[in-house]
């Protein structure tokens, strides 16, 4: 099917882009990689009056370390993350996520910020970024504001973003010197969305777990942190018992459903196993530093 007719704009600045979004009063959409928006328009799931293409705006493709944390600009593609040395080591939960997103064609164009703005509960970046700890930087008519990712993601395909606002950047906090993580995703075949997936991040403090981030994909209405598991691990020694208990708590916090990818019970068990496995991998990698 062809999309419904729409106007197309390719502004050269963020200010101009925001003005265009205001002019269409909620009826225009930002176009980044187009890997979710264009298929939705072709299926007529969405029919915006206008597209505001941000690809010609300079300075939005920054992927850089700053003050120990990371800046991921609105035009940073999945591909750039897949190839970046920055996302190994302390940010390995992100480095492990990138190559598991769809196929090379989608990864060449799709963006991290676009995924977060799209807020698909099956999307992979939301969980990985929740686990490492991230904020969303937003530009709108009133200027810039920053929202914690956990508050930004409100539900399936729903965020705290106003229709006149643009995500300009994601900022990841400094995880400290002894940190690592991973992203474990079960998919029916290469390129599929997750049956279930778990992002794990650990920062060690004198050998104990200082901060643990655990977040889930595809087992609830949004990417969500397994907060009880995170809390149980904070300050704990990384023993087999603590890891098993975290796996149990993460599985308990999942809200899966039966579908063509598997039963709710099966997905909950995947969450338990992946949480335990991910924690062991992350702790070993953080120790090796
Ligand atoms: C075949 C296929 C398989 C896929 N498999 C996976 C997968 O396994 N895992 C996964 O996580 N994803 C998957 N995706 C989705 C893919 O990762 C998309 O790239 C991503 O969801 C959206 O990023 P985008 O840059 O393409 O955004 P777009 O498609 O351009 O936009 C998506 C939505 O976000 C809004 N938006 C985009 N950028 C901004 C911004 N900076 N500010 C405000 N709003 C913005 C748009 O207005 C639109 O509503 C798949 C897509 C396809 C086509």
Q: What does this molecule look like?
A:
The chain is α+β, with helices and mostly antiparallel strands. It is built from 11 helices and 14 strands. It has helices at residues 14-23, 37-42, 78-83, 92-97, 104-109, 112-118, 125-132, 149-152, 227-233, 240-253, 264-288, and strands spanning 7-9, 28-31, 50-53, 63-66, 69-73, 134-140, 143-148, 153-155, 158-159, 166-172, 179-186, 196-205, 208-217, 224-225. The strands form 4 sheets. Strands 4-5-10-6-7 form a 5-stranded antiparallel β-sheet. It has a 4-stranded antiparallel β-sheet with strand order 11-12-13-14, with helices on both faces. Strand 8 and strand 9 (158-159) form a beta hairpin. Helix 10 (240-253) crosses helix 11. The longest helix has 25 residues, at 264-288. It starts with 6 loop residues before the first strand and ends with a helix. It binds flavin-adenine dinucleotide. Residues 29-37, 39, 74, 101-102, 106, 110-111, 113-115, 117-118, 120, 123-125, 161, 166-167, 193 line the site of flavin-adenine dinucleotide.
Task: Provide a compact summary of the structure.
The protein is an alpha+beta fold and 289 residues long. 34% of the residues lie in helices and 26% in strands.
